[in-house]
Amino acid sequence: MQAIQTLLQRAEYLISVHNPSQLPADRGVEVAIAGRSNAGKSSLINRLCRQKSLARTSRTPGRTRQLVFFQLDEDHHLVDLPGYGFARVGGELKRHWKGLIQGYLEKRQALAGLVIVMDVRHPLKPGDVDLANWAGAQGLPLHLVLTKADKLGHGKQKEALMTVRRSVDASVGVQLFSATTGQGLEELEAVMSNWLAWVDHHGESSSGETSGQ
């Protein structure tokens, strides 16, 4: 676990992408993190990377309006997707965002998995379900993180966790998380360690050798 912790702690801001032409080279391995506005996505990224202000947190929902790339090293990145649900912008910009996000998720060869962040008190909102269903249809590895777990007692946490687990395919990971207490951090690190492994989608290891041989 130390290796993934060291890698994540190296995270630094790389670029904010508003148009597909601005995307970094499609190589290496990336994990994308999505969620409704104000679901705790930025706080999760900061806790995961053990940095206080790597991802900006805001009292104004919908602040993130681009694909924000964080570089872990030359071959590994985290990608913060624009929050959905509360962004107070016009229809044209919303359609632009949807096109940008969908195009990224559909075509990005480096993308190893998608984390969907949901407030444990309000999981499986329509946007969450739509994105999860779409990712499943694409065959994209998916992990659901129920944030702000410290806001509920143990019984309510377990109830919310089981409700979500019963609503998704068995192949989809589901966990509780609290950026405040660190609950669920090791479980999320294990997912990141698996997805950010040095193997690309063509079965080539970082050294260029074919995996499994």
End-to-end distance, in Å?
25 Å
Main beta-sheet annotation: 7 strands, mixed
Can you tell me the CATH architecture?
3-Layer(aba) Sandwich
> What is the highest CATH level, the class?
Alpha Beta
% residues in beta strands: 15-25%
CATH superfamily: P-loop containing nucleotide triphosphate hydrolases
The helical percent reads 25-40%
Rg, Cα atoms, Å: 16 Å
Determine the number of helices (DSSP H or I, runs of at least 4 residues). 6
Mean pLDDT: 86
**What does the overall shape look like?**
globular
Describe the structure.
The protein is of the alpha/beta class and 213 residues long. The chain has a single domain (2-195), classed as P-loop containing nucleotide triphosphate hydrolases (Rossmann fold), CATH 3.40.50. The protein has helices spanning 2-9, 41-48, 91-107, 126-138, 154-167, 185-195; strands at 12-17, 29-35, 67-73, 76-80, 111-119, 142-147, 173-176. The radius of gyration is 16 Å and the shape is globular. 34% of the residues are buried.
